Amino acid sequence: METKEINNETTFKPFDETKQITTNKSDVWIIFGILCTIFILISIIIFCTFSLATIQSTTIAKGVYIKGIDVSGLTKEDAKQKITNYISSSIPEEITLKHNDFETSLSTTQLSIYFNTNEAVDMAYNIGKSGNIIQKNLTIIETLFSNVNIDPGFSIDTNQLKADLQDISSKLPDKVIESSYYIDGNNLVLTKGQAGQVIKVDETANTIITQVNNLNIQNNYIELITEDAYPNELNLDSIYNEIHKDSVDAYYTQNPFVIHPSENGVDFAISLDEAKNSLNESQDECVIPLKILYPRVTTNMIGTEAFPDLLSEFSTKYAASNKNRTTNLMLAANKINGTVLMPGETFSYNKVVGARTIQAGYKEAPIYVSGRVEDGIGGGICQITTTLYNAVVYANLDIVERSNHQFVPSYAGASRDATVVYGAIDFKFKNNRDYPIKITCSVANGVANFKIFGLRSDNDYEVQITSRITGKTATAIYSEAYKTLKKNGNVVSTSLLSKDTYKRH
């Protein structure tokens, strides 16, 4: 039997590496594509969600600060309230200022400090809310990581601040004392100044403004910025030119009538060179005597021809047999006689008549003292006051000060009198007319007479005075007086002159 050999051979194909690599790369790209797609989808979702949140947001973006205060996530109203409270709590009622041991303060209310909180909050709120959706989102993301601090607009009353600092500068304990001068009676007093410190107003003001804007004034003080200062030297030539004045004679013109009053002049009683030597030799103060230069023609010397119209007249009677009392009446009347009162000027009885003394020639005559009649120096001169008072009322001049007697006097009815006490009670009236007035008076033959001259105008009235007793008790008399103005016989007005109370004898 023939045997056959069977060869079982296995055939192996060679491995194709190129094909395998291509297959793997394809899978990677597929996976990468899937991942990219997923990432894009997630990004889109996030972007859409973020954009939707941004569009619908009614609060301030994250990372936004105002004056260093975080306002992230707050509504506009909440942010305004938060910043307003913070600023208010950071500004005290007063700003403390110091200079060495000296301490003072400024009122913040008077400085009108203002922070524009509303504008700052509006700026904060609008971050990430303008532009297209991409710009909005980028701004919000940028703000989140880098933060934004908004400084509100700020204002302060700089003029008031500088004025306050100027005032404080004049009150520093080591302030500069300026040289000065003044007239004391018949002397010119010159005072030399002293060097000291003054506030540098502009620099100090800028420091205060900066500290206030930085809200760095609560529980802190600000040091005043000062510098050395020296007083101005006294210039005696300039002072002399200011002090020296020639006297001016009074005169008047007609058509129209115009009174030009007299004026006293003033001059050094020593030569200018002597005054300079005295000033140079003095340490702190120098006194230079002055002399008054009197005019040759005073206002009171102008005759009645310059006062063409008699405005009013009033007389009272006195007992000529009482020599002392008559002397007192004459002395007082002579002091007043010829007095010219310019428009707007006020007459003072005590100033014109002066003190009633023995040296002035006054005699003892009956006066009222604590409800009793006693002899006293100058007794009776109140009759001159009373006579003048009535003439003034009839001239329709303004009564400034007037008092009634303790008792109703014999020479005038109730509420028709006026009393004076030197140094205590005065009688004053004002020339309310547009032209000067002149007062003439006489005391003779038992009659005290006053006349007031001036220039009549279309505004003048006929004056009537009425008085009456309104009541009596066992100890007092009550009265009142009225002034009635008439024009062409018609009553224009009636006004109360006074209500008075007198003691009964």
Q: Beta fraction of the residues?
A: 25-35%
Strand arrangement in the largest pleated sheet: 8-9-16-15
- Largest beta-sheet details: 4 strands, antiparallel
Indicate how many domains the architecture comprises. 3
Overall number of strands: 28
User: Roughly how many Å apart are the termini?
Assistant: 197 Å
Structural class: alpha+beta
Cα gyration radius (Å):
49 Å
| Overall morphology | elongated
Tally of helical segments: 11
Which runs of at least 5 residues are low in confidence (pLDDT < 50)?
Answer: 1-12
Helix content: 25-40%
Mean model confidence by pLDDT: 88
Condensed summary:
The protein is of the alpha+beta class and 505 residues long.
Question: Layout of helices and strands, plus pairs?
Answer:
Elements: H1 17-56, E1 64-66, E2 69-70, H2 76-90, E3 94-99, E4 102-107, E5 114-116, H3 117-126, H4 133-146, E6 148-150, E7 153-155, H5 158-169, E8 180-184, E9 187-191, E10 196-199, H6 201-213, E11 221-223, E12 226-229, H7 236-243, E13 251-253, E14 258-260, E15 265-268, H8 272-281, E16 285-293, E17 309-317, H9 323-336, E18 340-341, E19 346-348, H10 349-353, E20 364-369, E21 372-377, H11 382-394, E22 398-401, E23 428-430, E24 437-444, E25 447-454, E26 462-472, E27 476-487, E28 490-503
Helix pairs in contact: 1-4, 2-3, 5-6
